[in-house]
TrEMBL record:
<feature type="compositionally biased region" description="Polar residues">
    <location>
        <begin position="1"/>
        <end position="11"/>
    </location>
</feature>
<feature type="region of interest" description="Disordered">
    <location>
        <begin position="1"/>
        <end position="22"/>
    </location>
</feature>
<protein>
    <submittedName>
        <fullName>Uncharacterized protein</fullName>
    </submittedName>
</protein>
Length: 199
């Protein structure tokens, strides 16, 4: 559910999230038959969880970097935040927010894939800590970074056979991402240059 109301800007992401929650309630009230996996009452009693910063990995950096100490070192554009709406400890929906010179706005509501992944992660020992969220364009990879007990960063992802329940080190994750990025570039590089391929 994308939001495109350029007049609604807020001073903080949290204020935009509350507006997104109200928008979702209103949509469900006006159209109870809409299937978003949640009902108006659940949304009404939900609370905003900890926001995850959404960062897009720079695809060109991924192609050209054989070794990196973290996904953050390959960061491209910030895509704002995604904030889970929690009901009884479960993620029932998400509100995505982004900012520009005018302030914070709701950029999207809902994301079933991320909702399901966050619920899986919340059932692990890593679900209670702070997470960072990375998206890798062209690969459909969603990766969650968490701080492990030893202070290192571990990555949780369902991409390419990895597990959302068991963190993996960058040294294991990066070669697979890079391999797939190089393969994608080889197959679709010319189309990307011409702007004829949607990421």
């Amino acid at each position: 559910m994308n939001q495109d109301n350029p007049t609604q800007r807020f001073g903080t992401s949290a204020e935009a999230v509350e507006q997104g929650k109200r928008d979702l309630q209103e949509a469900l009230r006006l159209n109870p038959a809409i299937n978003l996996g949640v009902d108006e009452a659940q949304v009404g009693k939900s609370s905003a969880g900890q926001a995850l910063a959404v960062t897009e990995v720079d695809f060109q950096k991924l192609l050209s970097t054989e070794g990196a100490v973290s996904l953050a070192s390959l960061a491209g554009a910030s895509r704002g935040n995604t904030t889970p709406l929690l009901d009884d400890g479960r993620v029932i929906s998400l509100v995505e927010t982004s900012s520009d010179a005018g302030g914070w706005k709701v950029s999207a509501i809902g994301n079933q894939a991320v909702r399901e992944e966050l619920n899986q992660i919340r059932a692990t020992p890593y679900g209670g800590g702070e997470l960072a969220y990375f998206e890798v364009p062209n690969l459909d990879a969603r990766i969650y970074a968490t701080t492990l007990e030893d202070g290192s960063t571990g990555y949780l992802t369902g991409y390419d056979g990895f597990s959302l329940r068991q963190p993996v080190a960058i040294e294991e994750l990066l070669p697979r991402l890079r391999r797939d990025a190089l393969e994608f570039q080889e197959r679709h590089g010319e189309e990307l240059k011409r702007g004829k391929l949607v990421r």
